[in-house]
Amino acid sequence: MEPKNQYGMMMVSSPSDNYIPPGLESLAQMDQVIIEQLISACELLSGCEVKNRYILKNPMGQEFLTATEDSNFCAKQCCGNVRGFELPFLDSDGVEVLRLYRPLKCNSCFTPCCNQEMEITANGQLLGSMHQEWNFCLPLGSTYSVKNASGDEVFRIEAPFCPCSCGSDVVFEVIGSGGSVGSISRTWRGLCVECCTYADNFAVTFGSNLDVRYKALILGAAFLIDFIYFERNQNQ
Hints:
Elements: H1 25-28, E1 32-37, H2 41-46, E2 53-57, E3 63-68, H3 73-79, E4 85-90, E5 96-102, E6 117-122, E7 125-132, E8 143-148, E9 153-158, E10 170-176, E11 179-186, H4 191-196, E12 201-206, H5 212-235
Antiparallel strand pairs: 1-2, 1-12, 2-3, 3-4, 4-5, 5-6, 6-7, 7-8, 8-9, 9-10, 10-11, 11-12
């Protein structure tokens, strides 16, 4: 059995083959990705849910990937932030390099069978998955398990006790076998923007020398966190 660290997770090392999935070469060189959700005028005027659209930028502000939610119209209107969806990521040539899949699950604080989860693939190959954990003593969703393609836990994501802010960022720490390996921060954009729009921005930061497949897992986790914690603000 693999040894466990102080956080109780398996001490799974970074992949040693240095394989980079096609289309993720640029991600391998980055220590941070900026996620910007595009504002929909139609959604603001009508109040109806529309497909979420995102652009991903490098630390220099250069766009390198785009993503548009693929989900059922009725699910968006009726299921809100727990709706199932797929989210393909396309490069500048329109080629898909990543895809997120999230099944529809009800959201409940009283049962572990409703925990949210999501899979992340690259070119049809499973990279890993993210799982919301249930704890009777803690608010639902306060901890997440990130697993590789073999089902081994490689990271844990710790949510802040109160995942809301007024004037500051909301930071979710990503913990690996040796300690912190990055963070997912929902960035504060100013009072006027926060009050008038539903779009969210995130800054995803990676530790040094992290395998590109693990970067993709952390990047994908940011979108599930967005839906669980911040998409609901719109529905309310």
